[in-house]
UniProtKB/TrEMBL annotation:
A GO molecular-function descriptor: hydrolase activity
Keywords: Hydrolase
Residue ranges occupied by any Isochorismatase-like domain in the UniProt entry: 4-179
InterPro entries: Isochorismatase-like_dom, Isochorismatase-like_hydrls, Isochorismatase-like_sf
Keyword check for Secreted: no
SUPFAM superfamilies the UniProt entry points to: Isochorismatase-like hydrolases (SSF52499)
Organism: Streptomyces spirodelae
Keyword RNA-binding part of the UniProt annotation: no
PANTHER family: ISOCHORISMATASE HYDROLASE, PEROXYUREIDOACRYLATE/UREIDOACRYLATE AMIDOHYDROLASE-RELATED
Protein name: Cysteine hydrolase
Domain of life: Bacteria
Pfam families (UniProt xref): Isochorismatase (PF00857)
Amino acid sequence: MGNSALLVMDVQRDIVDIADVGSGYLPRLRRAIDGARAAGLPVIYVVIGLRPGRPEVSPRNKVLTNAVRAGLFTEGEPGTGIHDDIAPQQGETVITKRRASAFSGSDLDLVLRTRGIDSLVLTGIATSGVVLSTLCQANDLDFGLTVLADACLDTDPEVHQMLIDRLFPRWAEVVTVEDWLADITPR
């Protein structure tokens, strides 16, 4: 798996409030985070944050324009913060991005390359947003890729399942949190 890092993407208060996390999603994600820490893997958080006044949002960007109308993603607002149930520990990196992909408008690639990270384990909300966009870009950047199927969530369960079952396996290893933990836990 190379030098890996766990990416925890867009698990922010407002996004968690919109998504259906009642299926044990946050405890499962917390288990993946705790397992990564125990195995000595870096946990890197990625959040979407837009500047006040949103100068980075074009009216042609349908998703961001709708989010802005809903009052989402303004930097410094409480809802833009990482959800308390999976909060970073002191010293863990938090990356702010400006678009769907964790790489877009951020210094994620620089942080990864500086640390010698060449493989990523992807988690987050939404499967059809940040996870899909980051997976595509990370694949083009030649990262080794793993997607934790049950640590990704989408507001549309059918879209989530189609991506997990049909598209993501073309570019990444797709496993459950428990199977991944079994692979990284020292025996």
